[in-house]
Write a structure and sequence with these properties.
The chain is an alpha+beta fold and about 625 residues long. The strands form five sheets. Strands 14-3-16-15 form a four-stranded antiparallel β-sheet, covered by helices on one side. Strands 11-4-13-12 form a four-stranded antiparallel β-sheet.
Length: about 625
């Protein structure tokens, strides 16, 4: 099974590669000049267009990951051109190796790829030779170059297939991992908190506080703080001043009439039968108490959600409508004809009619229209405000000359009120430095803002005297936590001597046959990892958010290697591992080919391509 899946994946890869090459050149813009190749790999020229497209795609991918268009100098700093060059050189080195080995594909495969490319079809979907040649010509590629590219790609796929096939699945490795992941532990554990332990806190001395303060600077270090001046304008600020048009409100009401005027409805489930006799017999069984509507649904291999037809009006239910609307909640009526056959209907709830008049809807309609007008007004101010800032206006000037409001905020990543409730403001605030020019940015609700950072206060640990109350509270928490751990160790010692959890006044829980993938609520993330390092009968004390956990390992359960789930996991691990090994072998193979292939590069041609990105 793993082999078959791997082979299917391989051929999908081949097809995707061929399609990529088949689309090569279409949509690529900006490559100018007469540069045709940037060098050679053996006897194979390295097409300039191939490098251009690879570089273009990688820059686009990096830009998408970073959420912005990166410049070419940034791409160079990230090594993107070097990576793109390595890819195309590697591909052509492999093409050269295939030629040395005498490998190639027949014309029928190339013909199939050409005829299957939608870019070469006419309006009727048939292959158009004139369009084929014209499209290639407009992209700067000759028919020979294009078909040679397809042939090289298909031949390269043959070499890849030869490397990727024949790798045996590492079953021993897969079985070992499956045994490891599916092994189980049965254990008993009990939490201890400050309410479970009597702790008499002494008065801390100055030496105690100083030692705690010195040992825990991260507890008291402040966040980076930014002093920010900003202007902003949101629809809420101005929508009360927006004029509204009564005729437009009436038209809006009429357009949304179905929202405001709805007849009485019912929530209904429908179970369809092969004929009316079968439906009647089923209803008789329900009335006799021999079965229920949910049981009939389950017996058909369905769920209640499968037979739920939602909320319906009486008119929508045709012949069944009067009976359904006369029924009480939970009643079953029928059989009645439906578009799928005779059916029983269960009525589950009554939805009252809705009749909201224009006058009743008017406040919401007025608010919606005012908000929409406010958003349009704000949108119209983007260019004027941008021009003001570009002309050197201060934020206070912008506030004076527009409807934007001036404000200041002391902001850290913990502040999420006011303008900091907007994610876009927080993102810009975190990315802006002192001295950066303010720019107009948009808020999620259609508002605008611009900000400048006037000061950045780096994280710091305040002097002890300034945070004495916090340090005292921290010292008390530390002493309490240690007292709980000490008490837990005392009880754990008694458990090791044979006493039980209940005898030690511990509220214990037993977990049965949990695997490493399990989760125990109320425990730290490393809890199960610790449990799986224990020997049978061991008792341990683990710290837990100011408290402690006492745990005893009661049983070890090996994985059940005859279970179907175990076999499925082994197969999955083996297939994934085999593909990874094949990929590693392929990379080593191609690297060896590149080392042994005479590669020459024309740096001037490469620089010419780079100029298209600057």
């Amino acid at each position: 099974m793993a082999k078959a899946s791997k082979t299917r994946n391989f051929f999908v890869w081949i097809v995707m590669g061929l399609l990529f090459i088949g689309l090569m050149g279409f949509g690529a813009t900006g490559l100018s000049g007469t540069v045709r190749a940037i060098g050679n790999a053996g006897d194979k020229p390295i097409a300039a267009q191939s490098y251009y497209l690879e570089l273009q795609n990688r820059i686009a991918s990096a830009s998408a990951e970073q959420g912005r268009q990166i410049s070419f100098p940034e791409a160079e700093a990230q090594g993107i051109p070097a990576t793109a060059l390595q890819v195309v050189v590697g591909q052509r080195s492999l093409d050269n190796e295939a030629a040395v080995l005498g490998l190639s594909v027949g014309d029928d495969i190339i013909s199939e790829q050409v005829l299957g490319n939608p870019a070469f079809r006419d309006i009727n979907g048939a292959f158009d030779r004139a369009q084929y040649r014209g499209t290639l010509a407009r992209s700067g590629i000759s028919v020979r170059e294009y078909e040679n590219t397809l042939r090289d790609q298909a031949t390269r796929a043959l070499v890849q297939g030869a490397v990727f096939t024949g790798i045996p699945d590492p079953l021993t490795y897969a079985e070992t991992l499956a045994q490891f992941s599916r092994e189980g532990r049965t254990f008993t554990w009990a939490p201890l908190a400050d309410a479970d332990v009597e702790v008499a806190l002494p008065e801390p001395s100055e030496e105690d506080l100083q030692a705690h303060y010195d040992a825990n600077p991260d507890l008291y270090r402040t966040l980076e703080t930014r002093q920010i001046r900003y202007v902003w304008l949101t629809p809420d600020m101005i929508q009360d001043d927006m004029p509204v048009d009564e005729d437009e409100l009436r038209a809006e009401y009429d357009a949304r009439l179905e929202e405001y005027q709805q007849p009485e409805r019912r929530l209904v489930e429908r179970l369809v039968f092969s004929d009316e006799e079968a439906a009647a017999a089923a209803l008789a069984q329900i009335e006799a108490g021999e079965t229920t509507f949910p049981d009939l649904v389950a017996a058909r291999g369905l769920t209640l959600s499968d037979v739920d037809i939602g909320d319906v009006t009486e008119a929508q239910m045709d012949d069944a409508g009067p009976a359904i609307f006369a029924a009480e909640t939970g009643d079953i009526v029928g059989p009645f004809p439906s578009d799928l056959g005779p059916a029983l209907f269960r009525m589950n709830a009554i939805l009252s009619a809705r009749n909201i008049t224009f006058e009743q809807a008017l406040p919401d309609l007025r608010e919606d229209q005012a908000a929409a007008r406010a958003r349009r007004l704000i949108e119209d101010q983007i260019d004027p405000i941008t021009n003001l800032l570009a002309g050197g206006a201060q934020l206070s000037d912008v506030a004076d000359q527009t409807e934007m409001q001036l404000g200041e905020i002391t902001w850290t990543t913990d502040v999420t009120n006011g303008i900091a409730a907007y994610a876009s403001f927080r993102d810009i605030a975190a990315a802006t430095d002192v001295g950066d020019f303010a720019e107009v940015e948009e808020l999620d609700d259609g508002g605008l803002f611009a900000l400048e950072v006037t000061d950045i206060i780096a994280p710091m640990v305040p002097p002890l005297d300034d945070i004495r109350a916090d340090v005292i509270a921290g010292w008390e928490a530390e002493v309490t936590a240690q007292a709980i751990v000490d008490d837990a160790e005392s009880r754990a010692a008694q458990l090791r001597e044979g006493r039980e959890f209940a005898a030690l006044d511990l509220d214990a829980v037993q977990e049965t046959n949990l695997t490493r993938r399990g989760f125990v609520n109320g425990t730290p993330p490393t809890f199960l990892t610790e449990v799986f390092t224990m020997e049978l009968g061991d008792v341990r004390v683990l710290e837990n958010s100011g408290g402690a956990i006492i745990v005893r390992l009661d049983g070890v359960t090996p994985a059940e290697d005859t279970d179907s789930a175990f076999a499925a996991e082994v197969a999955s691990i083996a297939e994934s591992s085999s593909q990874g090994i094949a990929q590693d072998i392929y990379e080593l193979y191609t690297r060896n080919i590149q080392v042994n292939t005479d590669v020459t590069l024309n740096q001037a041609a490469i620089n010419s391509i780079h100029s298209n990105f600057r």
